């Protein structure tokens, strides 16, 4: 490899290679270079290829094979249309994960291709389309296609800052406890999840703004009606307020609802102003089922995230190196929840911990 360290050089990537297009070392998905020898692996830079060479050389094809491939394959510069983004296949649809473009919507923009109509006006002058419009024209189609949906600038900076202030005040009271695992199979739970949490209804003293957030979340889900998958949503948990205190704390790859406890939608609101993921880390990385690609969600201030809670969306919180706050609510499918309660009452172990963990926090909202 040029520049020292051994290994083959890199070439521009061919976008037609689909599923393999991510950096083998860090997972980055844009501006990739292809291994010039095996032509099957990609890197975001020559430096990352150099760092990964010790492992990659064990599977890298010979230079002779690379030459044969080179005669059969067009160069990436000629083959890939200018500016084309790598596509991530999720549930039969394509998701351009780069810059979160397909599953991210700014709440202050009109839905449906920019009709220009204004919706709710906030005290700070920030405009948002009506929640019903957001639900019908953005959230439902996005969840149907991708199972992931991001809404930026959800409540506006004024209310967002009030929520953040309430959460910081809660944290200062010492009410937060270490996050618990669904199954205590590990002797070191903190090696699996490093967050500190507390549960709130939104009606407590000092939680008025949090309550407004939860009402807005409920309104969005209500406006979606029965069009979110095949679910019949009739309730949710209380709000889990979580803090990752920095120092490299995170949460290893997991599934929120692996065993059918009733949770169907995970909804997360982020509270971190001026968050720089390159410096602070803390990215939520979602791994859509059956795919090697992933979607990175930065915990940006006033950002609302939805995704399916079941095995379709394993995810992890990457190590955070600054204090990271978020509020999570899980919505329940009525039928799956009823089946889970029946199993729980008969002592089936597969749902016992999940129900024990969240049954006291169930709130009927519809």
TrEMBL record:
Its main location: nucleus. InterPro entries: HIF_prolyl_hydroxylases, Oxoglu/Fe-dep_dioxygenase_dom, Pro_4_hyd_alph, Pro_4_hyd_alph_FE2OG_OXY, Znf_MYND. It comes from the Eukaryota. The keyword Iron applies. Residues 64-85, 105-129 are annotated as: Disordered. Residues 23-60 form the MYND-type domain. Keywords: Dioxygenase, Iron, Metal-binding, Nucleus, Oxidoreductase, Vitamin C, Zinc, Zinc-finger. SMART domains: P4Hc. GO terms for cellular component: cytoplasm; nucleus. Its cofactor is L-ascorbate. Coiled coil: none annotated. Residues 64-74 have a biased composition (Basic and acidic residues). This is hypoxia-inducible factor-proline dioxygenase. It comes from Eleutherodactylus coqui (Puerto Rican coqui).
């Amino acid at each position: 490899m040029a520049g020292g360290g051994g290994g083959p050089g890199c070439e521009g990537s061919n976008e037609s290679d689909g599923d393999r297009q991510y950096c083998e070392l860090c997972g980055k998905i844009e501006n990739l270079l292809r291994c010039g020898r095996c032509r099957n692996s990609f890197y975001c830079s020559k430096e990352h290829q150099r760092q990964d060479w010790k492992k990659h050389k064990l599977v890298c094809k010979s230079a002779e094979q690379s030459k044969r491939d080179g005669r059969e394959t067009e160069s990436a510069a000629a083959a890939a249309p200018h500016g084309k983004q790598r596509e991530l296949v999720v549930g039969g649809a394509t998701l351009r994960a780069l810059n979160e473009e397909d599953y991210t919507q700014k709440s202050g923009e009109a839905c449906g291709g920019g009709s220009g109509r204004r919706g709710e006006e906030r005290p700070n002058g920030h405009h948002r389309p009506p929640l019903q419009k957001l639900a019908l024209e953005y959230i439902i189609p996005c969840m149907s296609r991708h199972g992931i949906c991001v809404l930026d600038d959800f409540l506006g900076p004024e209310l967002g800052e009030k929520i953040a202030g309430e959460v910081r005040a809660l944290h200062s009271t010492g009410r937060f406890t270490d996050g618990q695992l669904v199954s205590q199979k590990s002797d070191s739970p903190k090696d699996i999840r490093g967050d500190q949490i507390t549960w709130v209804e939104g009606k407590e003293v000092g939680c008025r703004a949090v309550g407004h957030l939860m009402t807005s979340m409920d309104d969005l889900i209500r406006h979606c009606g029965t069009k979110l998958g095949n679910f019949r949503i009739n309730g949710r948990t209380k709000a889990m307020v979580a803090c990752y205190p920095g120092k490299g704390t995170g949460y290893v790859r997991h599934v929120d609802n692996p065993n059918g406890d009733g949770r169907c939608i995970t909804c997360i609101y982020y509270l971190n102003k001026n968050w720089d993921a390159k410096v602070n880390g803390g990215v939520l990385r979602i791994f859509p089922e059956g795919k090697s690609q992933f979607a990175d969600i930065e915990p940006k201030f006033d950002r609302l995230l939805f995704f399916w809670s079941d095995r379709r969306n394993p995810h992890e919180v990457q190590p955070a190196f600054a204090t990271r706050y978020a509020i999570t609510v899980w919505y329940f499918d009525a039928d799956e929840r009823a089946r889970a309660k029946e199993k729980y009452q008969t002592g089936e172990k597969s749902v016992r911990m999940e129900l024990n963990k969240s049954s006291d926090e169930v709130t009927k909202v519809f």
